[in-house]
Amino acid sequence: MKIQKIVGVAALLATLPMASNAANFNYNYGQIDYQSGDFDGFGVSGTFEINDEIFVRAGYIGATNDDAGFDIDYTRISVGAGYHMPIITKTDTDAVFTVSIVNEEIDTPLSATSADETGIMLTAGVRHNLNSDVELAGDLFYIDALDGDFGIYGEARYNINKDMSAGIGFTSSDNIDGLSLNFRFGF
Fold this sequence. Notes:
Elements: H1 2-14, E1 29-37, E2 40-49, E3 54-65, E4 72-86, E5 93-107, E6 115-129, E7 134-143, E8 149-159, E9 164-173, E10 177-186
């Protein structure tokens, strides 16, 4: 059922009118994140554009939860590719789709509750420039590792200059909810 929702959103986005030129988004960047919520920790990620529509991506998240009286460590490493395209004529809005190989690991002092699994992560979303200073983004994601996870991610980003921006985001999914602060630098 969860994968059907992602496929449905992707099909809907694919039917929207297309513009001939991409919106003015940078897909060559590195990013650092601080995340707080069900798990607290740091992440690094980045994308590199191969051509006007295709990019590669990689990311790492390391976080901990100690609400149970002992540390539960969560790690996610992902590597993949993405496709972006303008979706509404004469606007600064891109549809963005990614597919990644992801390894998720949960470590606890109780070996019976530790897990390590590799799977696929799919995302379908949008990036929209409200103006030259503010960008909004959001996506639906599905990860099939560790019993699966389906959720939504949203973000507001302020462009400090043409190469640097700061953002605040939220994640709400079947398994993890939280907020994040991030800093992105383009190259």
